[in-house]
Amino acid sequence: MRTFANPVIPGCHPDPSVCRVGDDYYLACSSFEYFPAVPIFHSRDLVSWNQLGNVLDRPSQLTLSPGTPSSGGIYAPTLRHHDGRFWLITSNIPRGGTLLVSAEDPAGPWSEPVPLPDVTGIDPDLAWDDDGNCWCTTAGVDQRRIDPVSGAVLSRPKRIWSGSPGAQLPEAPHLYRIGDTWYLLIAEGGTARGHGISVARGPAPDGPFEACPANPILSHRSTDHPIQNTGHGDLVQAGDGSWWLVFLGVRPRGGTPGWHVLGRETFLAPVTWSDGWPVVGPVDSVMRAPDLTPAPVAAAPARDDFDAVALHPRWISIRSRRPEDVSLVERPGWLTLRARGGSLDDPSATFVGRRQEQHDVRVRALVDAGRGRGGLAVRLDEQHHYAVEVGGGEVCVRARIGPLAQRLASQPVSGPVVLCVETWASGPGMDHPRQEPDVVRLGFETPDGGFVALAELDGRYLSTEVAGGFTGRLIGCYAAEGVIQIDWYDYRFLSLDRLALADDLVDA
Q: What range does the record give for the signal peptide (predicted)?
């Protein structure tokens, strides 16, 4: 029996939307204040996913101003394939409104956005009926017919269902025609511990809808399950006829209330049908894989030597990435960063990072700060980040937690230096009710390869439960003053259990 490890796309990859074209599956996620935006993935077995690129990867498609708040920006896309073309609709919050792009190839290029100023509400969905009508359904749950080419709204908004009585925040609608019946899948209960998925069905895309008597069909609320906040999902039928659900969840750790630090991640679960209703199977960290031909994807290289002509799409920046601030050609073989903001507290900070995808990691980077000041940071938002910084002949650790900012221990250094961040998750048992989810160690390497830890900090302060919002940690490099240059960046997963699972996936 082949197995796979959940989540199938780890790290801050929430609000998944999936579609199938032949034997290929494509999936897109929210990206919030980061640019390039909307990561898009490809798979042939629903388990192994490879990032093709980012849908909104040009400034002409997306401009996120410094005034865009953390956890603002691009919310909850819906990805669909219709009439030989891929379509993606999303929201730019708080001021960008609803926008729609399309492409012949999901790897891009994607079109310039079509604005839909008359479509209000987040989490827009797209569905087509047999007459060619395009239905756009948004959180609430409201629905309109639209012209996806021009963005024109062709009907008045109609409230079609509000979810389970008393449940808050009906959102993330996805509308499907399955046989002769239309199904409306939504999330409700909020995206924290009360999150869940419910479903209704009706004879037409605009209803009337009857609720499933077993709602919510997925929720881990009020349980001690290690995967929590399960919700915001999308259905897909595999090529063998089986049904599957991609959805978001988190992996909290530590004491009470449990802190999740990686963000909301993409999970996979099987779906069966009973009396015409979808039934979501058990969700576990290790699951039986779909009966599809295995199509493993090579793991991302641990080390990036910045020798390519462009950054890999996994690298993202805060709100924008100006060519004059981020360069691979100014010093070939090095990543050059030019400071805009004076620190990571600044919404315009020059930062290039990648999502933290595992709890136990070691990240190292060789940094030349001879013309400036900057370093290696673990970032959640402007008010919650830890950094090990080099400049002016010394290395120091900085911590920002809400309104408090502190400069911690420092040591003198000379020349380029290898900066290092390690995160170590707490064990499965609790030593005390307030046990931290993990410990973050920050320091540098000596010329002989020894690690000097300048600080060990409690990881709970870089968690959603403390900071609020919708994102997870990024680990990357930043410039705070002048120019810094990075020769290489190395991201290593330290635990062996998930690596063993990955080996089982390939070999079984």
A: none
Q: Give residues with Cβ within 8 angstroms of 151, minimum separation 6.
A: 100, 114, 115, 116, 117
What gap in Å lies between CA 141 and CA 185, rounded to an integer? 11
Q: Are residues 281 and 406 in the same domain?
A: no
Is the overall model pTM greater than 0.85, yes or no?
A: yes
The answer to whether 123 and 91 are in contact (CB under 8 A) is yes
- CA 454 vs CA 203, 396, 419, 426, 444: distances in Å: 64, 7, 11, 20, 8
Boundary residue ending a domain (254, 288, 322):
288
54-105 pLDDT, tens digit each: 999 999 999 899 999 999 999 999 999 999 999 999 999 998 999 999 999 9
- Which residue, chain included where needed, has tokens 């020798």? 307
3-state secondary structure 55-73: EECCCCCCCCCCCCCCCCE
Residues 374 and 468 in one domain: yes
The total number of structural domains that make up the chain? 2
Residue 498 pLDDT exceeds 60: no
Query: pLDDT tens, 475-497?
Result: 999 999 999 999 999 999 987 44
CATH code where residue 347 lies = 2.60.120.200
For 225, the domain range is 3-288
Contact 273, 462 (CB under 8 A): no
Q: Which residues are tagged catalytic?
A: 15, 171
Distance CA 348, CA 362 (A): 27
